[in-house]
Amino acid sequence: QVQLVESGGGLAQAGGSLRLSCKVSRSIFSMNEMGWYRQAPGKQRELVAGTTSGGSTNYADSVKGRFTISRDNAENTVYLQMNSLKPEDTAVYYCNAVRNVLGRRYDYWGQGTQVTVSS
């Protein structure tokens, strides 16, 4: 079983920064994709940023230029650097890992970390 543990959430003012961390219980080399999702009250969970084992990244339009996803393979950790935060970034942020094995997709999720941005 793969475990993901997020940290780094909290309260920030608009225009401020936070960095989220996601520690994975096994080598992230074995993960085809790593990503950060968020879910605000009353809304569906949405992809914020993702990275593949090949190193490509993708971002939601709403965070492009403000958020950066990165990975430390030696520490089995994925980060989300969030700058120029806005109140609409307030949500629970979830780390996600994906393994594709013999054509089957396996998703793993962290417990979530709350990010609150005040205006």
Radius of gyration: 14 Å
Number of strands: 11
Major sheet, described briefly? 7 strands, mixed
Can you tell me the residue ranges where pLDDT is under 50 for at least 5 consecutive residues? Answer: none
Order of helices and strands: EEEEEEEEEEE
- Tell me the span between the first and last alpha carbons: 40 Å
Shape descriptor reads: globular
Note the total helix count: 0
Question: Which key terms come to mind for this protein?
Answer:
single chain; 119 residues; mainly beta; 7-stranded mixed β-sheet; 4-stranded antiparallel β-sheet; 0% helix
Model description:
The protein is an all-beta fold and 119 residues long. 0% of the residues lie in helices and 56% in strands. It is built from no helices and eleven strands. Strands 2, 4, 5, 6, 9, 10 and 11 form a seven-stranded mixed sheet that branches. A four-stranded antiparallel sheet has the order 1-3-8-7, with no helix packed on it. The protein is globular and about 45 Å long. The model has no long low-confidence stretch (mean pLDDT 96).
Please specify the SSE layout and strand pairing.
Layout lengths: L3 E4 L2 E4 L4 E7 L8 E7 L6 E7 L4 E3 L7 E6 L4 E6 L8 E11 L2 E6 L3 E6 L1
Parallel strand pairs: 2-11
Antiparallel strand pairs: 1-3, 3-8, 4-5, 4-9, 5-6, 7-8, 9-10, 9-11
In a nutshell, what does this entry contain?
The protein is an all-beta fold and 119 residues long. The strands form two sheets. Strands 2, 4, 5, 6, 9, 10 and 11 form a seven-stranded mixed sheet that branches. Strands 1-3-8-7 form a four-stranded antiparallel sheet, with no helix packed on it. The mean pLDDT is 96.
